[in-house]
Amino acid sequence: MTEANKLYKAAVYSGRAAPSDLLAGVYLDTELISVARIQINPEYGLIRHVCTLPLLRQQGYGAHVVYHATDLWQRQHANIPLYLLPLPHLHDWYQRLGFMPIADTDLPDALRKIVLQSRRRHKGLTAMYIQASAR
Question: What is the DSSP pairing of strand 22-28 with strand 100-101?
């Protein structure tokens, strides 16, 4: 968790990992260079703050950490859906990774509240999910 938070801070991300989060990371030698955290709810998982060090972006590390996070989630929580709330300019990228848009009405109530709150800050935000068999 400490390494993940150092990476978020170095990349000037506002998110921070909590002890209850499920973390997936990609290392280059011994340095954590990309991380994704999944907030765990009894009804769903929510990928938050996928982050790669700025100097190493556009090299596939972000996709690798998302694949790792989804695989980890599906092994540990096979029957619980996994969602994310990407910024609009990242929708296509996440779709290439297997995520699909989902209507607000199909979301668990607790997640729908998070989506509505997030839209106050990020216009055009759309929830997405991945099916266990998508990868």
Answer: unpaired
**Half-sphere exposure of residue 123: CA atoms within 13 angstroms, side-chain side:** 0
Q: What is the pLDDT along the chain (135 residues), one digit of tens a residue?
A: 788 888 888 888 877 888 999 999 999 999 999 999 999 999 999 999 899 999 999 999 999 999 999 999 999 998 899 999 999 999 999 999 999 999 999 999 999 999 999 999 888 899 999 976 554
Spatial separation of the C-alpha atoms in residues 40 and 108, rounded to whole Å: 13
Six-digit token pair at 96? 């290439």
Residue 93's DSSP bridge partners are none
End-to-end CA distance of the chain: 26
